[in-house]
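Example A, followed by Example B.
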Amino acid sequence: MRSLHISAISIAAAALLQAAPALAQDTPLWSDTGEVTEESWTDADGHRFVDIQLVLQEGNRYAVAASSGQIDTMLTIFAPHSETVLAANDDGPDGTDSLVYFTASETGPYRLRVASYDAEQTGSYELSISSVAPPAPPEPFTGRSETVTWTVHEGVLANDAGEDSVAEFLIHLEAGQDVSIRGESEAFDVVLSLLDADDRFGDPVASDDDGAGGTNALLTFTAAESGDYVIRLGTYEGSGAGPYTISVRK
């Protein structure tokens, strides 16, 4: 019987990855080559895969890339000691190679899975990870007063660098205050999230996909305590770009 083999990087490489806060933007940290073979494990959908385990540092933002001239790569990032998928990509900005960006929410061993999209394909690949600058802090939410209660902001979501594009805005809520947030676009399927500003890369306190009808989003939230919150507008499965309107009523 085959046993599942997870490659682990050396202690020296792990130390380098954990030292990323001192590194510049888009700094290469680690790379290695591997091979998906007929003996590789397969997932529930029949994709052959190889798992690699890397120790990453809490709060660091990483770009992980898988490239191959022989297979159509699929890349998946799992949370430490978990089957929870943090990020996944099939075809990044360049053909059949894969690219994901994500921020480590805790220090620990993250599992990176390189798979072949075609169940019959086997071949070699290169996997690399780089330190990238964190996203810009959210800007204070401002806009025109469309009615007595709604404040409206119009913008354009761009996705031209292979990274899931989002727009983020900072709002302040008092304890017990209600807020309604609406995201609309004719260009993409809108996803809205509201996050505690002190836990910007954690789980949202509220989120919605199609609550405003069609592919538009609407969420409501009552603040349990006073504080700052981040409104995040993105696209369903990180796909799409174009003009959007975001409206806030509180």
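Example B, a separate protein, is given below in the same form.
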Amino acid sequence: MILAINAWCNQFPQLRAHLVTTASDNVVVRPRRTLGEPPLTNVSDAGRLLDYWRPMTGGNVLFGKAGMGLGWGIRGTNTLYASVPRPDRLVTQMTRAVPSLKDSTVLSSWRAPVEYSLSSLPFFGELGGFPGVYFGTGYSGDGIGPSVIGAQILAGLATETRDGMTTSFLARMPSGRGLPREPIRYVGGQLVKTAMIRQDLKQDAEDKVDLATRLTARIDPTSFLG
């Protein structure tokens, strides 16, 4: 059996310790004017809490902002599958990132959970205590490409095939003790997330980021940058 449940893998304590459950806020808009040439393409920026936008069929555009929520314990994933709490802020961020989308008509918006691994890389394996049950999780918001590799790893594990995929470093549990338990995990996560959002806003405005914000944002456990 293969579990294809994405962020809901945090239901299992052995996996939850190595995952941060956050959310991505999304909005679909209809531009009021032609976006010009070259046409709008798929884009993700380099921010830690990244912005991304995608053209859709019919001329509509999807815009999203990552890292805008934080889940509490085993119930965290369900609480992050909802409507966008502040759609006005999301639209403001959209027009800041893509000025040509200013005054667009909002068609729909939603918030969806995303699981980030502490290494920002997905990992796969057999669920401890459940022989023959395999999982893949920790795609960290970048699942389209890695899902192809993940499918090959999971297929190999399920058929007990030993090859380069099933013996790779992705086909094992992450090392270390992982994150602390609640409430330390949630309270600490909120402090770091708030600092990361503040840092992103200041960088977008080309303002100087204060030392306290920089140091707090660097505690982010899912960053390669430390």
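On Example B: The chain has a mean pLDDT of 87.
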